[in-house]
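Morning F.,

Quick status update on the modeling queue. The single chain you submitted on Monday has been processed. Sequence for confirmation:
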Amino acid sequence: MQARKVRMSSGAQWLLDGFGLLRRSPLGLGLLGAIFGLIVVLPSLLVSQGAAAMVAQLLLIIAGPLLLGGLVWAVREVDAGRQARTGHLLQGLQDGKAPRLLATLLPQWIVLLLAAVLLVLLVGTGNLQTMQQLAETMQAGGQPDQALMQSLPFGRLMLWLLALLVLGIGAAFATFVAIPTIMFSNTGGIAAMRQSLRACARNTGAMIVFLVLLVIAAIGISLAAQLVGFIASLAGQKAMLLVVNVLLMAVLMPVYAGAAYSAWKQFFGHDGEGAVPALPQEHGFQA
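Structure tokens below.
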């Protein structure tokens, strides 16, 4: 399907729509976001070292798109005048959608791989070892060697950061409206990401506005959560970390899900109640 061309200001409207949906169901969507945050942060608090920590982190990465799919489903329910329920978080496991949602992790892994390769090519293994040495010195409270600092290729590091930013934006484009497409149609994950990438690329201006405003909103929400977390810090650092992350996710994740849902409807002229037509499916793995 050909996505609509929208105005740059639509990026701001998506974010406002996300906040609007949260205001319509602050307890329902807020609780889902808080559960999302609890699932994300609690394993890292309980297991912080060793192989168990790596397994926990891997499970969290896998859970991310599944939970986000459930949140997108919940915001559509709220948009339709129905209630958001905790069971909606598991909606991504229904109707064989889990493999398609998990396919949306591919852009992130590709970005990580390309970032690592570019870092080695642009900076070099020797400079990376120097950076690690300087980091260890500063973590130990020592003064970094100024000669070593000046020997680092800061220009190439900035180039790498710029490349990482471009790759990250590309990954965001490929997944932004892929989740709603997967949840509300029988479109495969790879096809949904192609569709999302084309739609977002056609509306780059609106996407840039949205991403910039989302970062600003996330900073504001984080600061507010940290103020509450400061009180919780009286019970310890882990309590503060738990409170801050749960409060942050309770607001940010429903807002993001609502914004993605709003953009999906605007791109494809959909009222949110039916299903978008499926794109032709790939043979083999139904991703």
